[in-house]
Design goal:
Blueprint (H helix, E strand, L loop, with lengths): L7 E6 L4 H12 L3 E6 L5 H5 L7 E5 L5 H11 L5 E6 L14 H27 L10 E6 L12 H21 L3 E8 L8 H8 L1 H11 L9 H11 L10 E4 L3 H4 L1
Parallel strand pairs: 1-2, 1-4, 2-3, 4-5, 5-6, 6-7
Helix pairs in contact: 1-8, 3-4, 4-5, 6-7
């Protein structure tokens, strides 16, 4: 399926991670203008070597500040375009063991729920008050959840709970911002990236990963970033113009087997 996103100005939160980086590449190849948002200091060096591509900007921000996010969207949105947001902000890596400390639980909820809540409310509030930045009233936003929100895949309990809360928040928010904005979530399953959870597990204990795949994944392999990219573009585009408040599961059949 060919996507032409030349009318789109897309903010990608978490766009310097493995999956986010791939989405940015695909968006640029689909003629979109892209604004990558990041907050982690580990990306400072990469942001300083910003691409010379005129369609790409890399912006540092603070996901914990609703006001700063409003300002980011205000300064970097483009008039007479469809300003949209894709968020990959999240992490399932928890420190320590269950039951985790209150501080660690708060950290994981901040990353997976509250930061995304701030992003969602900031972009939708800005666009609802500024029609000139929402061409034809067709803005679309996509947030990244996880199959752990509804399936026991041995993910940390508090991570799973935070993702579940994010899904119901986005579902309900969709009714507040319709019909001029749409918003959905995507729940990936076990996706392989070189520096991600399954990349590290495959490197450290390949036999265990193969055993898990044979036991749990009907499609009989880990997911790839290419398995996800077209669905993010689908939700951005007019191909999904009648879909909002939905969660799409992309997990190789894991959910069907449980």
């Amino acid at each position: 399926m060919k996507f032409d996103l030349s009318k789109y100005n897309v903010f990608v939160a978490g766009g310097l991670g493995d999956i986010g980086e791939k989405i940015v590449e695909v968006l640029l190849n689909s003629n979109a203008n892209v604004k990558v948002l990041y907050s982690s200091k580990k990306y400072e060096d990469r942001s300083k070597s910003e691409s010379k591509n005129n369609f790409l900007k890399i912006l540092n921000t603070d996901y914990s500040s609703h006001d700063k996010l409003i300002e980011i969207f205000k300064k970097n949105s483009q008039k007479n375009m469809r300003n949209c947001l894709i968020s990959f902000v999240g992490s399932g890596k928890m420190e320590g063991e269950f039951p985790y400390t209150r501080k660690e639980v708060q950290r994981i909820w901040d990353i997976n729920y509250f930061f995304n809540r701030n992003l969602a409310t900031a972009i939708t509030k800005f666009l609802s008050e500024n029609d000139a930045y929402n061409k034809e009233g067709k803005a679309s936003h996509i947030f990244t959840s996880s199959i752990a929100s509804s399936k026991n895949v041995n993910a940390p309990i508090d991570y799973s709970a935070a993702k579940g809360a994010l899904e119901i928040f986005i579902k309900n928010l969709s009714t507040y911002i319709a019909p001029k904005q749409r918003i959905n979530t995507i729940s990936p399953g076990h996706i392989y990236t070189p520096t991600g959870t399954w990349g590290l597990k495959s490197k450290n204990n390949k036999k265990e990963v193969i055993s898990m795949i044979n036991k749990s994944v009907p499609i009989a392999r880990l997911g790839k970033t290419d398995d996800l990219t077209n669905f993010y573009l689908f939700f951005l585009s007019e191909f999904s113009s009648y879909i909002t408040g939905t969660n799409l599961v992309i997990d190789g059949g894991i959910s069907a087997k449980q």
